[in-house]
Amino acid sequence: MKLQGEMRRRLLPNPDNQLMARVKRALRASGYAPLAQVRVMVDRGQVFLAGDVPTYFMKQVAQTRALSVDGVKALSNDLVVEREFPQY
What are φ and ψ of residue 55, in 5° steps? Predict the structure, then answer.
C-alpha cells in the first residue's frame, strides 16, 4: 500500500551479486555436478573460487568457465583437489 506523498526508492542491483550469479550459472552449466557445489565470492569484479573438486581437470574447467563470464576482472582459484571425493 502506498501512502500519499511517499517516495519509492529504487535500489540499484549490486554488480558483484550479479557477477556472482553469472559465474555460478556458468559452473552449473558445465555439466559437472561437483562444479555446482563450488563456492563463489566476488569483490569489485575479482572472483574467488573455493571448495573441493575430484580432479585437476575439474579445477581447470571451473577456472576456464569463470574466466569466460563477462565482467570478471581477476580470478583466484582456491579449489582443492580431493583424492577421495565423496560424490564422484
Answer: -140, 160
